[in-house]
Amino acid sequence: DNSPEFIPKCRACRRQAREQSGEGDHHEGLSSDEELTPTEVDEFQKSKDNVLEDSRKIFEDVHADFCDIRKILLKFQEWKEKFPDSYCDAYISFCLPKLLNPLIRVQLISWNPLEQNFTELEEMPWFRAIEEFSDAENVSE
Question: pLDDT digits over 55-114, tens only?
């Protein structure tokens, strides 16, 4: 039952249970319904660690020239300088987002903007590489 009079009764029951058990770390106004148990926190951390470990292995068997965004963009820059007509005909500006997407996603797996000491997107190496490539394209045009 989610009637308005039921909700305050639930809160009163939880408050009474906390007072009887001696829990003193509850802050009034915060929902205790969404608090995770220590077991849930441990399971989440283990799952997160497994995902991060697996993500490090994704590009293990890829040649270094093809899993580094800066090196990939350098190859496109060389193509543009040597063969501008075929570069233009290939619509590279439309292809690059799809090409770089998996590489960027792997780098963002551990990024959490809600952490206190998170790295800004603009400070990440892949972002700077794309920014430099875009600036180089604009200068040449």
Answer: 888 888 888 888 899 999 999 999 999 999 999 999 988 999 999 999 999 989 888 888
Domain boundaries, the chain: 1-21+37-57, 61-140
- The dihedral of CA 64, 69, 70, 76: what is its sign? positive
Burial (CB count within 10 angstroms: exposed 0-12, middle 13-18, buried 19+), residue 69: buried
CA pair distance 13, 18, nearest whole angstrom: 9
Specify the DSSP class assigned to residue 35.
P
pTM: 0.63
Q: Nearest CA to 103 among 127, 69, 128?
A: 69
- The 10s digit of each residue's pLDDT in 26-52 is 556 665 556 778 888 889 889 989 998
DSSP-derived 3-state class of residue 9? helix
Burial class (CB in 10 A: 0-12, 13-18, 19+), 67: middle
CA distance to 36, 72, 119, per residue, from 113 (Å):
21, 27, 8
Closest CA to 96 of 49, 54, 131, 56: 131
